[in-house]
């Protein structure tokens, strides 16, 4: 059977002559249908200089390839082969220290499968003219190969572009409403790069979702009556970002992007807001995304997924999944599903939606890499960093905003002060000029004039009196910007604020500037504004009114939310002394902790530190909305941590508890890494602490890290963390002579590690002790600990005991929660273990039924895109292969792989195992070419995981089972 011939090549984009021998290599791999790497900004000297080490001496290569999806039909093997081709090119490039060096025949060989080395008597430029070569090794065979390939072209093309098998619905099989959304994750380093699109899910014939279009998620829907000028900027944005009205031109156009750059307060956000409001009807969808933190990007992308109808609220569990789904739709923004297995035809402008995505406050543009869309939509970025104009594009697209023109500045000043144009016009011009045309400065000063009921002459006299401002702050907007050098002491007169308003503004400066719930703000300000007397709501309202009148904050009455400009926060913080910052930090930490619904159970030892709003909410999705509202404020105070001096020991440890809980919340929402540095900070605090609650918290941190490592198949790291957590908890309980929920968790988690290490007797003992502890606490309901214990019993051949345990556990949950409860995934884990037990007993029909029940339960609890669901899909595929239902098996395998490739670096082990199963299915149906490719992928990944280089013929199902967590087998 003929092999597939990849068509990629590795081309040098940058070859520095004076590069050091130990330098940086950068390989650019474009996604399907994206711009060529030559248009990307990574060869820019300025960008390269930001890399650590000798970035300016980097070699830059681009991998170019023909799209495997160019025709009407395609096969996933073509993508796989391109991946192999890329790896081979990288291997070749790495093995060639000098590109001009002559090599012998042996060195020329890439040793690729079915490779034949051809020797031609031609120079490099004439290589393609092989017929002109006289003599030469292998030339006759090469000509024969070309002749036969052309002669059999029709057959070969039909073979290589064979359609994927379609799933035939069965009586138990629910419709799969997941669509294949390609991933173009940009920054996660993984050896799986190039395989993101390998596993397309089979589309169902039943229409499950209707996209909600038009869809507008804007920062505000109302008109900003104070917006003035900037018409030239808005016209520039329209020319750059509006979709073409020509249907032919609109189809297949490249991504349109534009960046507004400039210092804080110059009007970037307001211009973007006005553009989105004014032109939103030109798009089918407009999305406003606050882009200053990864957590906010994740939150907004999940909201987009829900607003469009790409996910159901009941299934929207993982923010990582939501992000990839949204990026997939942006890359192929079809308007509707049809009754057939296909969408409307790709590339038809009538069927594709037009969209505008606004990244606001992207002051670190590089964090947008994981969220950057593809396709033919429009992207608008606002950022203080000029790099935003060059991000992900070869040609800079954007502009640096300058101050308002003199006329626009004066018009805005008159409008905001409500002083008629022409009234004391000379003084008005002097004030307007003095404020430098900065919109935020004009807005704030107009607020002062209104609040203090000053005439223009009175204000200008005060403004020009330098002694009046002698004690004010001298922080600059940006000392590097020649366009605005006025100190903020000449812009904001904070000393004119009432004391309570000043205190409230200081408090606001420690919270996330975009969304501050007034219930939280009022709670935090109660002690601050009471001044020793009983706090009254009117204290808060008076202070808020003072700030609103000065235009220092903004309020959304309907949502009961406050927002503030970042520049205002910066100025207030710069003016606060270290002791005041410390007191405010302490207050914020305690308020946030008091409102946080904790995932962890009550500590075994009664804590000295304050307790959170609630405890023991681990895996409970009902607490997620509260956590989502508080999380941005945790991010904000974490930014301050290194600048706060002499923090009291109790505040330090309470802050570490808050960070640990917030990081675990992100784990529940789908993250497997990059927890905003929370765990590192929390561990650092604990390691230097002598507080009596320190060991309890450190045990929680190790528990979290152990569970996260286990999910990512990092079993060695998981074991170390779980052992440390157990040692700390058992030490506390032994000293007190008590036990509790924490001790149960410690035994259960250590038992899991021991089962994974094949120490089945020890794992059994740990889990039985864990269950004894939990039963002694009362109100016993079986959980996942029983399912994990069953795996230890099953591995030791204790089938009767395993059977009794699982059936009793299932009955216990049904009695307490009802049959097929939706409380959590725990019932599904018991059903899954029962299915495996019945398979061991050769009771295949019962095994299949239990696994189907587990699959339905996973869908109903954690959702169709969770890794628990993927595990059961793999197991069901094994059943279907056994029954000879190969097409359904392949569809389920594709479904599982689609889930895991959302975070391929964390789930490499599962991908390897399921790809091997896919090869077995193809082999059983005689599709040897497909089987060969799947086996090679699976074996390569297994080699990377285990460092064992074994031939595929020697590997079995058990060899791949052992590289995944035992509860996934």
UniProtKB/TrEMBL annotation:
Residue runs in coiled coils: none
Top-level taxonomic group: Eukaryota
Gene3D superfamilies the UniProt entry points to: P-loop containing nucleotide triphosphate hydrolases, Tetratricopeptide repeat domain
InterPro entries reported for this sequence: DUF7779 (IPR056681), P-loop_NTPase (IPR027417), TPR-like_helical_dom_sf (IPR011990), TPR_rpt (IPR019734)
Domain DUF7779: 492-580
Record GO terms (molecular function): ADP binding
PANTHER family: NB-ARC AND TPR DOMAIN PROTEIN, ZU5 DOMAIN-CONTAINING PROTEIN
Name of the protein described by the UniProt record: Tetratricopeptide repeat protein
Organism expressing this protein natively: Ajellomyces capsulatus (strain H88)
């Amino acid at each position: 059977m003929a092999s597939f011939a990849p068509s990629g090549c590795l081309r040098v984009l940058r070859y520095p002559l004076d590069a050091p021998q130990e330098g940086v290599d950068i390989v650019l791999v474009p996604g399907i249908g994206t711009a060529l790497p030559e248009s990307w900004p990574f060869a820019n000297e300025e960008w390269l200089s930001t890399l650590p080490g000798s970035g300016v001496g980097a070699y830059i290569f681009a991998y170019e390839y023909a799209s495997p999806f160019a025709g009407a039909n395609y096969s996933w093997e073509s993508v796989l082969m391109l991946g192999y081709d890329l790896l081979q090119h990288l291997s070749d490039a790495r093995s060639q220290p000098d590109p001009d060096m002559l090599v012998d025949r042996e060195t020329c060989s890439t040793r690729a499968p079915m490779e034949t080395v051809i020797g031609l008597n031609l120079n490099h430029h004439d290589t393609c003219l092989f017929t002109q070569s006289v003599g030469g090794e292998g030339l006759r065979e090469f000509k024969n190969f070309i002749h036969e390939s052309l002669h059999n072209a029709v057959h070969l093309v039909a073979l290589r572009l064979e359609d994927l098998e379609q799933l035939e619905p069965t009586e138990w099989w629910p419709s799969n409403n997941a669509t294949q959304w390609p991933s173009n994750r940009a920054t996660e380093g993984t050896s799986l790069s190039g395989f993101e699109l390998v596993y397309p899910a089979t589309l169902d014939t039943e229409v499950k979702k209707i996209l909600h279009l038009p869809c507008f998620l804007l920062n505000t829907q109302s008109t900003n009556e104070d917006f003035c000028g900037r018409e030239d900027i808005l016209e520039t944005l329209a020319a750059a970002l509006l979709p073409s009205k020509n249907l032919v031109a609109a189809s297949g156009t490249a991504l349109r992007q534009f960046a507004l750059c400039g210092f804080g307060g110059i009007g970037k956000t307001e211009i973007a807001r006005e553009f989105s409001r004014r032109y939103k009807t030109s798009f089918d969808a407009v999305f406003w995304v606050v882009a200053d933190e990864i957590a906010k990007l994740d939150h907004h992308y999940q909201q987009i997924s829900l607003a469009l109808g790409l996910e159901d609220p009941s299934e929207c569990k993982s923010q990582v999944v939501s992000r990839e789904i949204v990026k997939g739709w942006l890359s192929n923004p079809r308007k509707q599903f049809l009754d057939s297995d296909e969408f409307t035809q790709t590339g038809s402008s009538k069927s594709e939606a037009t969209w505008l995505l606004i990244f606001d406050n992207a002051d670190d543009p590089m964090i947008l890499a994981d969220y950057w869309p593809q396709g033919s939509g429009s992207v608008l970025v606002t950022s203080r960093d000029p790099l935003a104009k060059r991000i992900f594009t070869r040609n800079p697209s954007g502009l640096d905003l300058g101050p308002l023109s003199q006329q626009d500045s004066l018009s805005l000043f008159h409008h905001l002060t409500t002083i008629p144009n022409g009234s004391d016009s000379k003084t008005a011009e002097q004030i307007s000029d003095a404020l430098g045309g900065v919109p935020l400065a004009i807005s704030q000063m107009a607020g002062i004039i209104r609040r203090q009921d000053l005439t223009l002459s009175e204000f200008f006299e005060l403004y020009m009196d330098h002694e009046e401002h002698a004690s004010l702050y001298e922080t600059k907007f940006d000392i590097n910007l020649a366009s605005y050098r006025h100190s903020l002491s000449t812009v904001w007169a904070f000393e004119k604020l009432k004391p309570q308003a000043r205190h409230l503004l200081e408090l606001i400066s420690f919270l996330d500037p975009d969304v501050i719930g007034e219930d939280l703000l009022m709670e935090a300000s109660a002690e601050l504004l009471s001044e020793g007397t009983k706090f009254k709501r009117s204290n808060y309202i008076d202070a808020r009114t003072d700030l609103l009148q000065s235009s220092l904050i903004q309020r959304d009455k309907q949502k009961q939310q406050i927002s503030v400009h970042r520049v205002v926060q910066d100025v207030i913080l710069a003016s606060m002394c270290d002791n005041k910052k410390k007191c405010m930090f302490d207050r914020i930490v305690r308020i946030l902790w008091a409102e946080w619904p904790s995932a962890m159970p009550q500590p075994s030892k009664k804590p000295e530190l304050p307790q959170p709003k609630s405890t023991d909410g681990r895996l409970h999705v009902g607490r997620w909305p509260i956590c989502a509202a508080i999380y941005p404020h945790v991010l904000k105070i974490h930014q301050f941590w290194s600048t706060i001096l002499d923090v009291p020991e109790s505040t330090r440890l309470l802050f570490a508890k808050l960070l640990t809980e917030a990081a675990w919340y992100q784990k529940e929402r789908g993250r497997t890494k990059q927890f905003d540095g929370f765990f590192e900070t929390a561990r650092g605090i604990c390691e230097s602490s002598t507080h009596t609650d320190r060991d309890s918290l450190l045990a929680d941190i190790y528990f979290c890290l152990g569970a996260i490592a286990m999910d990512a198949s990092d079993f060695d790291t998981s074991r170390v963390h779980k052992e440390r957590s157990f040692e700390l908890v058992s030490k506390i309980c032994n000293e007190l002579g008590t036990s509790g929920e924490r001790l149960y968790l410690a035994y259960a988690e250590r038992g899991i590690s021991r089962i994974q290490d094949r120490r089945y007797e020890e794992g059994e003992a740990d889990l039985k002790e864990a269950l004894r502890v939990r039963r002694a606490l009362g109100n016993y309901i079986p959980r996942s600990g029983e399912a994990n214990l069953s795996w230890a019993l099953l591995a030791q051949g204790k089938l009767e005991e395993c059977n009794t345990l699982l059936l009793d556990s299932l009955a216990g949950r049904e009695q307490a929660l009802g049959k097929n409860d939706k409380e959590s995934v725990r019932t599904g884990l018991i059903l899954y273990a029962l299915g495996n037990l019945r398979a061991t007993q050769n009771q295949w029909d019962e095994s299949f039924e239990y696994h189907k029940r587990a699959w339905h339960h996973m869908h109903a609890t954690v959702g169709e895109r969770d890794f628990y669901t993927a595990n059961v899909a793999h197991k069901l595929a094994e059943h279907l292969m056994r029954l000879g239902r190969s097409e359904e098996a392949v569809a389920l395998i594709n479904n599982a792989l689609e889930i895991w490739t959302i975070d391929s670096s964390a789930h490499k082990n599962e991908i390897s195992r399921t790809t091997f199963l896919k090869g077995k299915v193809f082999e059983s149906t005689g599709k040897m070419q497909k089987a060969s490719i799947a086996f090679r992928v699976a074996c390569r990944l297994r080699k990377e995981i285990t460092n064992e280089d074994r031939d595929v013929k020697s590997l079995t199902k058990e060899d791949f089972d052992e590289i995944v967590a035992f509860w996934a087998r």
